[in-house]
Amino acid sequence: MAQRILDATDLFSGGGGASEGLKQAGWWIACAANHDPVSVATHKLNHPNTEHRLKDLKEVDWRTFPSTTALWVSPSCVWHARSGGRKQLPVEVELLRVDEGSVDRATAFAVIEAAEVHRYPVIFIENVPEFMAWVLYPLWLEMLRTLGYHVEVLLLDAADFGHAQNRKRMFMVATFDGLKLDLSPGNLTKGIQPVYAADILDPNPGKPMTRELYVSSQIAEIREEYVPHLVVYRRNAHALRADRHRLATVTAGGNHHAVAQVRDGVRYHRLISDLECARAQGFPDSYIFTGGTNKLRKRQIGNAVPVGIARRLGEIAAEALAA
Q1: pTM higher than 0.85
Q2: Are residues 49 and 105 in the same domain?
Q3: Cα 271–238–280 angle (5° rounding)?
């Protein structure tokens, strides 16, 4: 197979986790599109050589987008995720798209519409595992296959790709015109070394505790002094050594992570910083997130694709295209 230019389009690009990973794998991000101006501003700042489009991707003419070798798509996962007591609608109701949930889930059809026009040799799709329980998923998948794509579905944990967090997501790799990628478990994680929370934490122990906190019972479990432990603002959690464990999933909805330790009998505590959360997602410290509020930065970081997973998938695709 003739070697192709390693250029990619990133749809629902957010702050740029997938783009950063593909860039690190040697890809040029030709075009990135998203509906959120703050996320587009962040992406533009960190990927200045990319064409940026501030667009509602439910309402675009895909002929105006460039044809690239790869397409990365991370459709909205908000109305697929378990949180919020999501209810499945019958197929005929889902197709009407008369409620917020069905409209949001329909963003996944951008994959089909863009692929029909451009026939990208490789398409990467990322979402929560519950995406596969979507009532229109069988129809959606069959449409992609009808276009001539071979589809492989992977459930990947960021922890297996050099990240200091546990984050399980669904990834699909769709290839066209006989392109074959080696997505075996051994090849996916080849050469990747484990990373734990201690590897991304700053040495700052925080402030001495002067009052009881929601996580006080967890901090009371700490026996080893001068050893950072992870504590979580969730029920039934326990303090975990940061040099042996990873963060729970970094989310877009707030900061539930803290670090605590005991020094000479004094208990210390602080919340995990935005920079540390970004490190857990694989972003380099030089990556800048725009947005005037802490909430906007956390949303971008929590919604991002783990950089290491995108990098490894990009490397494997590049190897196959060069063969």
Answers
A1: yes
A2: yes
A3: 45
